[in-house]
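Run: sequence + coproporphyrinogen III -> complex structure.
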Amino acid sequence: MKSTTLDTAHPLSDGRTSAAPLVQALRGERPGRTPVWFMRQAGRSLPEYLEVRQGVTMLDSCLRPPLAAEITLQPVRRHRVDAAIFFSDIVVPLRLAGVGVDIVPGVGPVMDQPYRTAADVDRLVSRPLTDEALEPIREAVALTVTGLTELASANGDEWVTPLIGFGGAPFTLAAYLVEGRPSRDHLAARTLMHADPETWQRLVDWTADLTGAFLRAQVSAGASAVQLFDSWAGSLSLADYTAHVAGASTRALRHVAGAGVPAIHFGTGTGHLLPAMRSVLVDAGMTDHAVGVDYRTPLDEAAALLPGVPLQGNVDPALLAAPWPVLEAHVRDVVRRGLAAPGHVVNLGHGVPPETDPTVLTRVVELVHSL
Ligand code: CP3
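>> structure
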């Protein structure tokens, strides 16, 4: 496995992002203001996003570096969030490895076929993701970091907003591959891990290295933190997670462990998995790390399960559409409960719903910064 160390011009090495509230909170400190960003902050809630996406498919927009950089910057300009999240998708590395995948609007990732048998998996693992194929990713990240640096000097900010790189965790990617499309219970994936554990292992080792290479490209090009999305891990029992999934997630993160960037590990419905998800970060050697908590587990309860660990979360996305006083009380409650952790990054318990009024998101940012 290739490892990453940051060069001296990286924004985390040259000091541009090291004093940013996001980086400090992920290091377990309490910066002057509580950092806040939103999963899916770039996207359909923004009119400027809908405008630049006209006539361009989702995956094509991810692979046009100037467009991906522009979309990544839009929510930072508008909401003044404390992090940019790279505009891409967890299935982009599959496409770059030559796997037939599309993102169907309103549905999600759909594969050219389900990958369920040993022969299907053989065909997949014969396709490595090369560094050359990742060039559009490195280019988009570098353009984004330049844009963030310019934005900071235009605003007279003391630090540059950090860019978070991300990847899909091996289980969540494998769930799409085995099912062939989005599913609720991931039955076929869970069947495969028990029916043919050897094939399952080869599959998740491959998705781990795919995401690892995707993360490495983003970190080497200028991302100051990473987030591993295991959105569907909540469908697993703790025993299955530990035996069949955690090792592959550790393997994915090891690709960037040497770089010293902070890492966030997020899933939904994972209240029963939080300590195991934390162990993945530790086993991978991610020295500075946080666990993302969805809206189902109050942060003070999560903090009791994860003593000494910074947390990210967990405003309920449903409340973004509630009257402001209801949302305000909820955000205040989230921030108060978050004090139980050594560091807290405010976020949603899952992504921004497409129909969200963007002015509400800006108001949440202002509220969190004022507390
Ligand atoms: O702003 C950001 O968060 C950065 C970009 C980002 C996207 N996808 C863009 C996107 C990130 C971090 C992701 C991760 C992702 N993609 C996950 C993990 C996070 C989660 O939501 O649980 C998952 C499971 C996927 C797979 C995926 N891609 C789904 C389920 C969908 C939604 C399908 C739909 O149309 O509702 C996508 C498409 C997608 N990825 C969109 C965006 C902005 C919507 C596409 C569009 O605008 O046309």
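>> summary
The chain has a mean pLDDT of 96. The first strand starts at residue 84 and ends at 85.
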